[in-house]
Amino acid sequence: MGEHRAMLPRHIEASQISALLDSLGEPQPDHIEPLQVTAEYHAIFILSYRSPKADWILRVSGAHIPEIKTRNEVGMMKTISEKTTIPIPRVVHFDASTSNSLGHEYTILERASGISVDKVYDTLSELTKHALMQQLLEVLVQLDALQWNFIGGLAAQDDGSVVPGPVVDETFWQTSDIAEFWGPAESVETLNVQGPFTTFVDYCNAHLEKYIHMIKTHESMRWLRDLIPRLQATITMATDRAIALNDTRLILAHRDLHFANIMFDPETERISSVLDWEFSNIVPAARWNPAHAFLWNGQAGPRSLEEKARLYADFERQCKQRQILVDYKFTPLQEAIQQVVTYVRALTEVCPRAQQKDSVAGWRRSAEEALESLGV
User: Fold this and answer.
1) Around 130, how many Cα atoms within 13 Å sit in the side-chain half-sphere?
2) How far apart are CA 247 and CA 71, in angstroms?
3) How much is the pTM?
4) Which of 210, 194, 205, 206 is nearest to 72 (CA)?
5) Does residue 10 lie in a domain region?
6) Per-position DSSP letters for 153-217, written without gaps between them
7) CB contact at 8 A, 228 and 368
8) Residue 6 — pLDDT band, cuts 50, 70, 90?
9) Roughly what angle, to the nearest 10 degrees, separates helices 302-322 and 126-145?
10) Which residues, listed in sequence order, are joined to residue 43 by a DSSP beta bridge?
11) Any idea what the CATH number is for the domain that residue 43 is in?
């Protein structure tokens, strides 16, 4: 996507943070420190208290995806805290509006204990790596046990309740990208699906309708406009075959469960916290790991991918032995319509930016092959 960091909040003063804490009836910290990290969606501050000794993390959001991303993260964390034993930071306060002394959305979380696994991965023994994989498997088992009847997010409300919410996805067109590549006629709402959706067919059709709109609208996708009748026919076909297509399990998926999002205690070798739930969603089970991030060690290069594949093979063996998480698969019909959605999404993501020029022809062919398998 675009330069997310360009949208980060600038010049948040300590006095603004102090005013925020006063408005919340919270004590003033003994120390406020900006955290020097390359976060794409937040400016982060550590609020340190000496007595009682504690640290809070203040995450001040940019305006990338207004309101729904903050509400989704808090809604997910509240739900995980109430319905599972998965360790996560406690949400202290949040505001999904900009009507506060910071002028931005924010969350205040208790600081997670432990150390990020990706920082020490190369020093870990095989036994420790295996133990961490086993613990993540148990995280997935707990998520699998929750029951859902919609596809989308979980939106925290100002009164503390959590309700079904819209889809939130890192691949969304975000405000800075829209301003640069689309102009004032478009918005986060016009270019991205909303939801929640009652069925898989409703979810897929909503995507296809957005892609048709984008292909019609943006000049860079003129070469794709001959696909529009076939995409419209796919919507009709999906509606006609809804019973078969909608027969899929729905699960709450973190969707970015790599080791940079896992904190652990080196002494006990136990996971102490699972972080970053902002793009978690309730999805068809086959879409639990869409970016194939699960078990990635946070490092770049082919060796990292080989290591992830090695651990993942062990994970799959464990699932088969225990007969758990083994039904996370689409039927051929479901897979075909998902392939149409996936490849057309990729085209509508990169064409307006004039990116991936060597790939787009192949992506179109893949979309057409999926359309052919659907008979449209």
Assistant:
1) 6
2) 29
3) 0.95
4) 194
5) yes
6) EEEE-TTS-EEEE----TTS--HHHHHHHT-TT--HHHHS----BSSHHHHHHHHHHHHHHHHHH
7) no
8) low
9) 60
10) 60
11) 3.30.200.20
Owning domain of residue 22: 4-110
Instruction: Give tens-digit pLDDT for 292-351.
Output: 999 999 999 999 999 999 999 999 999 999 999 988 999 999 999 999 999 999 999 999
- How far apart are alpha carbons 197 and 151 in whole angstroms? 5
Residue 363, domain member (yes or no)? no
Distance CA 246, CA 149 (A): 11
| DSSP assignment letter at 78 | H
Q: Do 242 and 202 form a contact (C-beta atoms < 8 A)?
A: no
DSSP string, 20-42: HHHHHTPPPPSEEEE-----SSE
Contact 168, 155 (CB under 8 A): no
Q: Is residue 180 part of a domain?
A: no
Cα–Cα separations (whole angstroms), residue 160 to 25, 78, 83, 157, 227: 17, 9, 15, 5, 45
102, part of any domain:
yes
| Structural domain count, the chain | 1
